Amino acid sequence: MTDSPKAKLYIDTQRAVSDISPLLFSGFAEHMGRAIYEGIYDPASPHADENGLRKDVLAALRELNFRSMRYPGGNFLSGYRWEDGIGPKDQRPTRRDLAWQSIETNQFGTDEFMHFCQEIGTDPMMAVNMGTGSIQDAANLVEYCNGPVGTKYANMRAENGHEAPYNVKHWCIGNEMDGPWQIGHLEAEDYGKKAREAAKMMRWHDNDIKLVLCGSSNSSMPTFPEWDRVALEICYDYVDYHSMHHYANNHANDTASYLAKSAEFEYFVDTLSGVLRYVKAKNRSKKDVYLQWDEWNVWYKAHGSEHTQGNWEEAPHLIEEVYNLEDALVVAQWMNVFLRKADVIKVACLAQIVNVIAPILTTRDSMLKQSIYYPFMLFSQLASGKSLDVTTRSPLYNTSEFGDMPLLDVSSSYNEETDSNAIFIVNRSQTDSLPVEIHWQDRAPKSINSIYQVAGTDPKAANSFDNPDQVVAKKVDAPSFDESSTTLVLPPLSFTAIDVQL
């Protein structure tokens, strides 16, 4: 590294990538482990409200400001009978969940989920079973949720206390159907044909819904991206989004490469956006289909069968990942990618929200915010309007996995209505602070409203119930600025969110 390295950022509000879809800040709640039971829903907790929802968890989720919530799975979806989870609770069947080898009591189902979404101020995103479920089952669920009273399934909803339709807008047609582990796994052509026919029936119930096609369950699948091409060619004009899933890991314990994972994320996006363009051209279509990254997070420590098989217990402890500082910096970069690729990524669902690979952990009487809670919160609260194409001049560092990478990973947004500019920066250096000059090219800042940082000296530092404030967002003093520029010194291993009034 050269002596006294310095970085420069150039912000121009006219140099926009795309509108930022608010749905980039969405979540995912699956019937898995303690995500629903003992997470969202825990009548035995002293923090439970009259409906069994955890009030402390609800407050934390409101702070994260999720715009939509995907439900009920996940692998669980492909064996789920949605009618098990409605009606009087004492009449609901208890079943074996084959996906996670757990016991499902069905005490929390569709109507409880709709109430939960209302409580945290988010829109529900429902998924239909394409494994053991039929296209008729999928259509029936749309009628139950969105149909006006007067026919069987809409009347069932009214009998269960909800006369007005829920008007669920976003619907996922199955989950990871490319995966051999999936209940009712289908080959791409078979899935595409089933999804197309389900889409037709679902839209005949409600023509205003938005539909999400299953893409490859990860980019390392041997069928990627051919699966995506085949399914899209069959369904392109019937759907609005194409799903993508990915979980980041640091199995190699190579922090330098791990902190450059944005290169991996961008490659995945670029590959699938190329597939979308190809299929649009081949099908001679007039419409656009966008990407929905509806499972994303860090997951590798709580791995293996002991973390994914529930031994036929109710609410077993499954994949309860403990997140550290370097994980938080990877999550921040992931969200930088969402903004930089906002022209093609329109929905992103953090997987998951409570206990299972989640920003929040609970015991019966307490709750912990993990390190990844804070970057998501800052992006969700500050990023709005348009994503900006930031010109970044940064020193490089070497990684064994990605070669030379810039020390800084950057994104920015501009909201014309509020005249506010948010800047998000990760300093990947493990050892050195980095002075960063920020230049606003077409506008001069009036003030820097706030600067928050998630930073530390140990990449493995993590929050615990005994020490909950090891890795949190801390407000730092704003530097002075000279007309249209300022200089900020970023500590190593840091994520910085800057809120600027123009």
Structural class: alpha/beta
| Overall pLDDT | 97
The name CATH uses for the topology of the largest domain is TIM Barrel
Strand runs, count: 26
Can you list the strand order of the major beta sheet? 3-4-7-8-9-10-11-12
Strand content: 25-35%
What is the radius of gyration computed over CA atoms, rounded to a whole number of angstroms? 23 Å
> Biggest β-sheet: count, sense, barrel?
8 strands, parallel, barrel
CATH architectural grouping of the largest domain: Alpha-Beta Barrel
Number of separate helices: 11
| Weakly predicted, low-confidence segments | none
Shape: globular
- Kindly state the percentage of residues in helix: 10-25%
The top level CATH class name of the largest domain = Alpha Beta
Q: Report the CATH superfamily of the largest domain.
A: Glycosidases
Structural account:
Keywords: Carbohydrate metabolism, Glycosidase, Hydrolase. Its EC number is 3.2.1.55. This is non-reducing end alpha-L-arabinofuranosidase. Residues 294-494 form the Alpha-L-arabinofuranosidase C-terminal domain. It is a single chain. The protein has helices at residues 55-64, 110-120, 135-146, 152-159, 188-205, 226-235, 255-258, 262-282, 305-308, 325-340, 373-382; strands spanning 7-11, 16-19, 26-28, 68-71, 95-97, 102-104, 123-128, 170-173, 210-213, 241-248, 290-298, 345-351, 360-362, 367-369, 386-388, 391-393, 396-399, 403-406, 408-415, 420-427, 434-440, 447-455, 474-475, 481-482, 485-490, 494-501. The chain is built from eleven helices and 26 strands. Helix 6 links the parallel strand 9 (210-213) and strand 10. The protein has 502 residues and is of the alpha/beta class.
